[in-house]
Amino acid sequence: MYHFQVRYDIMSRLYPMNIIPTDFRPILYRGRVASESGYLVKIHIGSVRFIHADLFDHLNGPVEILDIEVGKTYYDPLE
User: Fold this and answer.
1) From which domain of life does this come (predicted)?
2) Cβ atoms within 10 Å, residue 64
3) Which of 27, 28, 60, 79 is most open to solvent, judged by the fewest CB atoms within 10 Å of its CB?
């Protein structure tokens, strides 16, 4: 259920940067080494454009977006 809220939150951060996604599809993710509930996600936002999102999943609450990196490509590693 939280995935709709995460998508909305990420989109609301992209619009002020004049980035209008034509697609929104997570294609790769990995857990963060230091945290059991943190994830790095590569998201396809249209054409050949990708973003990386750093997410933290609270145990008893919503997912928090810690950071978004824009201007990524398919070949950029999740770091």
Assistant:
1) Eukaryota
2) 13
3) 60
- In angstroms, the CA 27 to CA 48 distance is 13
Q: Is 25 exposed, middle or buried (0-12, 13-18, 19+ CB in 10 A)?
A: exposed
Does a structural domain hold residue 79?
no
Task: Tokens 């909305």: give the residue.
Answer: 8
Each of the 79 residues of the chain gets a pLDDT tens digit; together they read 467 889 999 999 999 999 999 999 999 999 877 767 889 999 999 999 999 999 998 878 788 999 999 999 999 999 8
Residue 53, domain member (yes or no): yes
Domain count, the chain: 1
